[in-house]
Design a protein that fits this description.
Strand content: 5-15%
Oligomer: single chain
CATH architecture of the largest domain: 3-Layer(aba) Sandwich
Order of helices and strands: EHEHEEEEHEHEEEEHEHHHHHHHHH
EC number: 1.1.1.169
Number of strands: 12
CATH superfamily of the largest domain: NAD(P)-binding Rossmann-like Domain
Shape: globular
Largest sheet: 8 strands, mixed
CATH topology of the largest domain: Rossmann fold
Pathway: Cofactor biosynthesis; (R)-pantothenate biosynthesis; (R)-pantoate from 3-methyl-2-oxobutanoate: step 2/2
Radius of gyration: 19 Å
Structural class: alpha/beta
Bound molecules: NADPH dihydro-nicotinamide-adenine-dinucleotide phosphate, ketopantoate
Strand order of the largest sheet: 5-2-1-6-7-8-11-12
Number of helices: 14
Helix content: 40-55%
Pfam families: ApbA, ApbA_C
Function: Catalyzes the NADPH-dependent reduction of ketopantoate into pantoic acid.
Organism: Actinacidiphila acidipaludis
């Protein structure tokens, strides 16, 4: 293939981060996003920020901005970065416009986005991808990467080469379903973080919040075992050991989990950002998946179910929970 052309479908935090890096490296990228978001980029351009490098600014004239999926018609790769609840509709928008041979890559959380895209886009290759780090819209037109990490995708040399040229670290994985199950275990913290109202680093530094996550992960691991799912190991700690590590006292945890705490002070979960902006969250694709999988195997997942209910309540009536309050609430649900 000659130099691949890209489109980003869902130009929010992750879409602007991935697409922005590709534009900075000289790739042709069409950003498809909501009118208000595209107006901001049209006015201010796009700034890619981290706490480890000076920000990179892409002026508006370097951005191809659109609000309809037909702008993806010229793309060899379409990176899908909408929230999970929007995947089916986004795929429907895309179906009429995808070029023959175009590859669609889901860089979303949750377990079923690649399957949803495959069902809606027969005849196209759909690859699963995974973003392990946090990106948040830190100012209008600015997306901030708050921690290091390596993207993962199903093997695709052209895609990996482009992402690497764009300065992004990427690993090809033949076991993406297991990777997605492992990522779901991490994402069970999204709800805890969102309800804490704290930056990720502060929230993870507090044992009562970590114990909430540990409760959720234990239920998820039990459901995985019942379903015969073995989540991939993504970091220094095996998934089965993580709940134990999360329960350690703060000082010990800080030493044992130093590598996982390389998070800067701005980083927040994507669910926190949803609640802040008054948007529906992805809770049904995170805690909801655990509850459904457990139920399918005759089990309960009460801590996950309670957290899901609390997040749904916070979608209409925002409130924050202290660690001890939240832990007591989840314990009482069991
Ligand atoms: N942010 C993060 O740190 C991380 C996020 N992820 C995952 O990546 C995915 C994307 O997350 P994130 O970037 O935070 O989400 P955002 O909400 O920031 O971005 C998605 C954007 O796509 C827009 N959108 C939805 N449907 C369409 C459509 N059909 N056409 C055009 N635009 C559309 C949304 O608008 P609207 O809100 O109006 O629907 C929103 O502006 C999620 O699955 C998330 O869980 C994974 C790792 C980290
Ligand atoms: C990176 C992580 C786990 C936490 O920010 C995430 O996936 C999210 O916020 O959705």
């Amino acid at each position: 293939m000659t130099t691949p052309r890209f489109a980003v479908l869902g130009a929010g935090s992750i879409g602007c981060h991935l697409g922005g890096h590709l534009v900075a490296a000289g790739y042709d990228v069409a950003f498809v996003g909501r009118p208000a978001a595209m107006d901001v980029l049209r006015e201010r351009g796009l700034t890619l920020s981290t706490s480890v490098r000076p920000p990179a600014h892409l002026p508006p004239d370097r951005l191809t901005l659109a609000t309809a999926a037909e702008a993806a018609a010229g793309a060899d790769y379409v990176l899908v970065t909408v929230k999970t609840a929007a995947t089916r509709a986004a795929a429907g928008d895309l179906a009429a416009h995808l070029a023959p041979g175009a590859v669609v890559v889901s860089f979303q959380n949750g377990l079923h986005n690649p399957a949803t895209l495959r069902a809606a886009l027969p005849g196209h290759t759909v690859r699963a991808g995974m973003v392990p780090y946090n990106v948040v819209g830190s100012a209008p037109g600015t997306v901030h990467q708050g921690m290091p990490g390596r993207l993962m995708t199903e093997p695709d040399d052209t895609l990996a080469t482009a992402l690497r040229k764009a300065g992004l670290s990427v690993e090809a994985r033949a076991d993406m379903p297991e990777v997605q199950h492992a990522k779901l275990l991490m994402n069970l913290n999204n709800a805890v973080n969102a309800l804490s109202g704290l930056p990720l680093r502060d929230q993870l530094g507090l044992r009562p919040y970590r114990r909430c996550l540990a409760l959720c992960q234990r239920e998820a691991l039990a459901a995985y075992r019942a379903a015969g799912v073995t989540p991939a190991r993504l970091g220094p700690t095996a998934p089965g050991v993580t709940p134990y590590v999360l329960g350690l006292p703060d000082g010990v945890f800080r030493r044992v989990a130093a590598a996982s705490l390389r998070i800067d002070a701005h980083a927040r979960s994507s669910m926190w950002e949803d609640l802040q902006r008054g948007r529906a969250t992805e809770i049904d694709s995170l805690q909801g998946e655990v509850v459904a999988l457990a139920a399918a195997h005759g089990r309960g997942a009460p801590a996950n179910a309670r957290l899901a209910a609390l997040v749904h309540a916070a979608e209409s009536a925002p409130r924050t929970w202290s660690g001890p309050e939240l832990y007591a609430e989840l314990r009482a649900a069991r």
